[in-house]
C-alpha cells in the first residue's frame, strides 16, 4: 500500500506533484482537450487549499512528435480549472526552475516545463539509477515531498516517476489512489471476463492478450481496430495493400507473427472481426471476410455489422468487460459506428472498465456513458488489468522510510 495525501502534512511543504496531462494538441500547438487536466483538479486544489507549495511536473508528447510542445497552455488552462493563479516557468530543473520552486509561498502553484524536453526523462531506469539523473538530483533538494498522481504514466520507469520517490517521501495523489483502488481488484470482478482490444497500439495489446489468456483472467479476447486487422492478417486473411501498408508503416509487421502464435495457443478464446468497413464512393461500405481483399486503395477502417452482432452476443454473457482502444477510425463519422455500438453494448455488462486516452476522447465525442470505471490511463490501465505491477507505484511503495504526520 502507498501512502496518500491523508498521510501528508501539507501546510508549508514544498511538494513536487507529477501529473499526466499528455493531451491532444491542435495545429496551433495549443492544448486541444483538457480532460486529463480536469482529472487532476481535486489533487491540486486539495494541496493548494491545505497550504502546500506546489511544483507541477508533467510530460507532453514524445520527442519528434507534433504534440511535443511546451506546457505553457496547460498551465493557463489549469489556472482556469483551479480558479487559482498558476505560474509557468520554461525550465524543469535549472537554476531558474529551482528558484521558482524555492520562492513558492503557501498555496502557490507553478508548472515546470515538459519533463521530456530533457533527454534522460525519455529513458527507462531502475529507480536507484533514476534518482541519480540530472532532473532528480537538480530538483529534489528544493522539494520536501513527492506526490504521484500520474497514473496514466505509471507503467513508465522514467526519472520523474521512479527517481523522486526513491529520495523523497512519496504519496499517491487522488487520481492515483482511485485508479489503484478500482483497477487493483480485477481478479475479484465477476466472470466471465471479456477483454476487448482495439486501437492502434498493437504491440501493447498483444502483450496484454498473452498475459490475460495465460493467467486465465480472460475468458475471451475480442479484437477490433488496427489490432483486429493484424489478427486477421495473422489468420491468413488478405486485407489488401492499403491496410497492409499502414501496418508496415507503423512498424507492426513483426506483430503479425506474434498474433499468429497467440492464435495457435489460444485461438478458440480469441475472436476476430467477421467483416470490415472501407470507404467506397465516399461512403462507408462493409465487406465480409469472404469478399476480401478490398479494392486497391481501400483500407479496413472499422469493424462491420456482422462483427458487431457477434461481439454483442458474446458480451451478453459477460460479467466483466474491459475495453481499450477504439474499434475503428472514430474521428471520421463514417467509421464511428463500430466504436459507438460496441462501447454502448459494453455499458450493459455488470462491470465495465474502459482505459485509454483516445478511447476516453472517443467516448466523449460519441456521448457514450454509463461505464463502471473510465480510467485516465491506457497502457497503465492495461498493465494493471493484467495484474502486473506498475514501476511508478512500486517505487512509491518502496520509497525512503518516512513518517510525516498528517495535518491536524
Ligand atoms: N482500423 C483502423 N485503422 C487505422 N486506425 C485505426 C483503426 N481503428 C482505430 N484506429 C485509430 O486508433 C487510434 C487510437 O488508438 P490508441 O492510441 O491505441 O487508443 P488509446 O489511446 O485509447 O489507447 C485512433 O486514432 C483511431 O483512429
Ligand atoms: O498518454 C499516455 O499513455 P496512454 O496513451 O497509454 O494513455 C501517457 O501519458 C504515457 O505516454 P507515453 O506512452 O508517451 O509514455
UniProtKB/TrEMBL annotation:
The keyword Transit peptide does not apply. Pathway: Carbohydrate degradation; glycolysis; pyruvate from D-glyceraldehyde 3-phosphate: step 2/5. Pfam families: PGK. It comes from the Archaea. It catalyses: (2R)-3-phosphoglycerate + ATP = (2R)-3-phospho-glyceroyl phosphate + ADP. One of its GO terms (cellular component) is cytosol. ATP binds at residues 331, 356-359. The keyword Protein biosynthesis does not apply. InterPro entries: Phosphoglycerate_kinase, Phosphoglycerate_kinase_N, Phosphoglycerate_kinase_sf. (2R)-3-phosphoglycerate binds at residues 36, 116, 156. Substrate binds at residues 20-22, 36, 59-62, 116, 156. Belongs to the phosphoglycerate kinase family. Monomer. This is Phosphoglycerate kinase. It comes from Natronorubrum sulfidifaciens JCM 14089.
Amino acid at each position: 500500500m502507498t501512502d496518500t495525501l491523508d498521510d501528508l502534512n501539507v501546510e508549508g511543504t514544498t511538494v513536487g506533484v507529477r501529473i499526466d496531462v499528455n493531451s491532444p494538441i491542435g495545429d496551433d500547438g495549443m492544448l486541444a482537450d483538457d480532460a486529463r487536466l480536469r482529472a487532476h483538479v481535486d489533487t491540486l486544489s486539495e494541496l493548494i487549499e491545505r497550504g502546500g507549495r506546489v511544483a507541477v511536473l508533467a510530460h507532453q508528447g514524445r520527442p519528434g512528435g507534433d504534440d511535443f510542445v511546451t506546457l505553457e497552455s496547460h498551465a493557463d488552462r489549469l489556472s482556469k480549472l483551479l480558479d487559482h493563479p498558476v505560474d509557468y516557468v520554461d525550465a524543469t530543473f535549472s537554476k531558474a526552475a529551482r528558484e521558482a520552486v524555492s520562492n513558492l509561498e503557501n498555496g502557490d502553484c507553478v508548472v515546470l516545463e515538459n519533463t521530456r524536453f530533457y533527454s534522460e526523462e525519455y529513458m527507462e531506469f531502475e529507480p536507484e539509477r533514476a534518482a541519480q539523473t540530472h532532473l532528480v538530483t537538480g530538483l529534489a533538494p528544493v522539494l520536501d515531498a513527492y506526490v504521484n498522481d500520474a497514473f496514466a504514466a505509471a507503467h513508465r520507469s522514467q526519472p520523474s516517476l521512479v527517481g523522486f520517490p526513491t529520495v523523497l517521501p512519496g504519496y499517491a495523489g487522488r487520481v492515483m489512489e482511485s485508479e489503484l483502488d478500482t483497477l487493483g481488484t480485477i481478479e475479484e470482478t465477476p466472470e466471465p471476463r471479456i477483454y476487448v482490444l482495439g486501437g492502434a497500439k498493437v504491440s501493447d495489446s498483444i502483450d496484454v492478450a498473452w498475459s490475460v489468456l495465460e493467467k486465465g483472467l480472460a475468458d475471451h479476447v475480442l479484437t477490433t481496430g488496427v489490432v483486429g486487422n493484424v489478427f486477421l492478417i495473422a489468420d491468413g486473411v488478405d486485407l489488401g495493400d492499403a491496410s497492409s501498408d499502414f501496418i508496415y508503416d507503423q512498424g507492426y509487421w513483426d506483430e503479425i507473427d506474434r498474433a499468429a502464435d497467440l492464435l495457435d495457443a489460444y485461438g478458440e478464446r480469441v475472436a476476430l472481426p467477421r467483416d470490415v468497413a472501407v470507404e467506397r464512393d465516399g461512403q462507408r461500405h462493409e465487406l465480409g471476410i469472404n469478399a476480401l481483399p478490398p479494392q486497391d486503395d481501400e483500407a479496413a477502417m472499422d469493424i462491420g455489422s456482422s462483427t458487431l452482432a457477434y461481439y454483442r452476443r458474446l458480451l451478453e454473457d459477460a460479467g466483466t468487460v474491459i475495453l481499450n482502444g477504439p474499434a475503428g477510425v472514430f474521428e471520421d463519422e463514417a467509421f464511428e459506428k463500430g466504436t459507438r455500438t460496441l462501447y454502448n453494448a459494453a455499458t450493459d455488462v455488470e462491470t465495465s472498465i474502459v482505459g485509454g486516452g483516445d478511447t476516453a476522447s472517443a467516448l466523449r465525442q460519441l456521448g457514450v456513458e454509463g461505464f463502471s470505471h473510465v480510467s485516465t490511463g491506457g497502457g497503465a490501465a492495461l498493465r494493471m488489468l493484467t495484474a502486473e505491477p506498475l514501476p511508478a507505484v512500486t517505487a512509491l511503495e518502496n520509497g525512503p522510510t518516512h513518517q510525516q504526520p498528517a495535518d491536524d
